[in-house]
Amino acid sequence: MVAVGVESVESVEQLALVWREMVLDRDPGADVRDLPGVAVRWADCRFAFWNCVTLTEAGVDAGLLARRLGEAADVMRGKRHPGFLWVFEDLLDDGARVALGAAAERAGLVRAFPGTGMAGDLLPVPEPVHPDLSFVRVTTDDHLQAYADLNSRAYGMPLEAGRDGLAGSALWKGGVFAYLGLREGVPVTCAGAVESAGRVFVALVATDPVWERRGYGEAVTRMALCAAGRATGLRRAVLHATVAGAPVYPRIGFRPNSAIGFFALRG
């Protein structure tokens, strides 16, 4: 249990560190604050993943959970664009986990979808070979738009939402090891990896729904990890998986640590 707790703390700390960089890249005036027990990383753009609040304390009991959920919901209500509260459930004590659904409802929040925190001492990984794909690093505005559009399609957002989150980013064209997987020259999958506090953090993995279940997401994630590991010499990698991605990443060497609940304001 101790190891799981340590990795869950690592997972939420990595989110706060990386999202700070991503959100400030999107808007230098973004709302980036560390409140007692709540980290705000909110670009207030149409790309909902850049609008993030997360609970940061370990061992939270039911009473403190209710208070923190209310505080997080108040932050979200003050914003123009919707986003998500991330709750790393392994940071809650047993009573708080049982109370989470009802406490969220009282705070005006609804569960949007589940996720899983994962990590592993898995680098370096070899450069992948996939019979259908070639890989290109994101270095141009056209590459970046293709990357944004893949995320929009994969996560059911309008194309304008992904573009609002990534268009014009210098970070994603240089600081992030971001890759497109091309099938016959057409981008069909993407993944990014960035150095963060002695780790490699994987973000925004997406595959066009037309081309799912062909191993494309795994291959392009391996490509991003390969490049990041080779450049940094780091060994440990961290990511946050959706339900669709959760079965893929253990094949690369990631181990699940904390269930994550994503919550939105009730409409």
Percentage of residues in DSSP E strands: 25-35%
Structural class: alpha+beta
Low-confidence stretches: none
Count of individual beta strands: 11
Mean pLDDT across residues? 96
General form: globular
How much is the radius of gyration in Å?
A: 18 Å
Please tally the helical runs, counting DSSP H or I stretches of 4 or more residues: 6
Helices and strands, in order, run as: HEEEHEHEEHHEEEHEE
Q: Give the strand line-up of the largest sheet.
A: 1-2-3-4-11-5-10-9-8-7-6
Helicity range of the residues? 25-40%
Please give a structural write-up:
The model has no long low-confidence stretch (mean pLDDT 96). A hairpin with an 8-residue loop joins strand 2 and strand 3. The protein starts with a helix and ends with a strand. With 267 residues, the chain is an alpha+beta fold. Helix 2 runs parallel beside helix 3. The protein is globular. Strands 1-2-3-4-11-5-10-9-8-7-6 form an eleven-stranded mixed beta sheet, with helices on both faces. The relative contact order is 0.18. The protein is built from six helices and eleven strands.
In short:
Helices cover 35% and strands 31% of the residues. With 267 residues, it is an alpha+beta fold.
Summarize the helices and strands and which ones pair or pack.
Blueprint: H1 2-26, E1 31-35, E2 38-42, E3 51-55, H2 62-77, E4 84-88, H3 94-106, E5 109-121, E6 133-137, H4 141-154, H5 159-166, E7 177-183, E8 186-196, E9 199-207, H6 216-232, E10 236-242, E11 255-265
Parallel strand pairs: 3-4, 9-10
Antiparallel strand pairs: 1-2, 2-3, 4-11, 5-10, 5-11, 6-7, 7-8, 8-9
Helix pairs in contact: 2-3, 4-5
